[in-house]
Amino acid sequence: AKGAGRNRYRFFEPEMTVASQVRMALEVSLRPALARGEFELHYQPRIELAGMALVGMEALIRWNHPERGRVSPQQFIAIAEETGLIVDIGRWVLLEACTRTRRLMDEFGRPVAVSVNVSARQLAQPAFVDEVRTVLARTGLPPECLELELTESALIEDIEHTASMLRELKRLGISLAVDDFGTGFSSLAYLRRFPIDVLKLDRSFVLQQDQDVSTFDFIKAFVDMAHALNMAVVAEGVETGEVLDLLRAARCDQAQGYYLARPMTLSELRSVIEASGAP
Ligand code: C2E
Ligand code: CA
Ligand code: CA
Ligand code: CA
Q1: Pocket test for ligand 1, best of 38, 60, 260, 268 (most atoms within 8 A of CB)
Q2: pLDDT tens, position by position, 159-188
Q3: I want to staple 42 with a disulfide (CB 3.0 to 4.6 A). Which of 86, 118, 226, 263 is the partner?
């Protein structure tokens, strides 16, 4: 390629890897996906470890691509974040999750709690707090039934601004969780600056083995510290009964994972809520 024609042909340059071609194709089809109704939410139950009761669920987005079938959020959330599309997608997720959860409450006649993932880009929107307030008012979901999951990376930029924004969110009466704790570089001491209610321990954190300290002692010390800071601890990615027992012995509060329940459709979730008793 030479001169002016160069950019026109860049899609076909041999140095463009298959991975980057797929990425570009996804990026192009991601834009109209929202309008075409290709997104759907699945829900993964969250269990309280002391009594094994269902305490809520996490909303997880699914993309039903017309040609590619189900595309994993692992693949498209990063693209949505880079392009800024996550702001519109995230707005849809919040409204959809709150609408559906409110309906479940009406159906079952008891409160149902939902946790929604929020990306750093969304949190950086000046209107974000108003958006949450509006969705709560519009859907009638009680604020105490909504939790927002924020990643550590959303908390490392502009600490003062982020902290004041989180305080505003807390004033709405909702709950705030830090997602994937243990994968970033923030510490409990750092998180004290923010009004965080819940720490979600990443799967790798729980599985990580230490040479000198047993996994149990490590998790136990961590949970005690979180409790001292008034934070509840939720373990993510629990795949075996052994891990579950260890977490319970360490007084971890809640857990999510394939061993307990996989992310599921709304109608599957209905049967789980139904089976969880308490009229
Ligand atoms: P995440 O927020 O950490 O969500 C947990 C992920 O772990 C989910 O993957 C879930 O299906 C998976 N998981 C649950 N239990 C187990 C287990 O026992 N073992 C293993 N290995 N994995 C388990 P999923 O649904 O593919 O979502 C991946 C990531 O995409 C999420 O990680 C989150 O970061 C992002 N994501 C999903 N939905 C949304 C959304 O609505 N908005 C935003 N901003 N991000 C989302
Ligand atoms: Ca999450
Ligand atoms: Ca997580
Ligand atoms: Ca994760």
Answers
A1: 60
A2: 899 999 999 999 999 999 999 998 887 788
A3: 263
> What is the ipTM for the molecules in this complex?
0.98
Q: What's the 178 CA to ligand 2 centre distance in angstroms? A: 8
For the four alpha carbons of 44, 49, 55 and 58, in that order, the dihedral sign comes to negative
Please return the burial class of 130, using the count of CB atoms within 10 Å of its CB with bins 0-12, 13-18 and 19+: exposed
Contact 200, 236 (CB under 8 A): yes
Hey, which bits of 35-80 come out as E strands? 39-48, 53-65, 69-71
Q: What is the pTM of this model?
A: 0.93
Query: Does the C-beta of 261 come closer than 6 Å to ligand 1?
Result: no
- Please tell me the distance between residue 90's alpha carbon and the centre of ligand 1 in angstroms: 14
Contact 196, 234 (CB under 8 A): no
* Burial bucket for residue 51 (CB in 10 Å: 0-12, 13-18, 19+): exposed
Chain segment 245-262, per-residue pLDDT in tens? 999 999 999 999 999 999
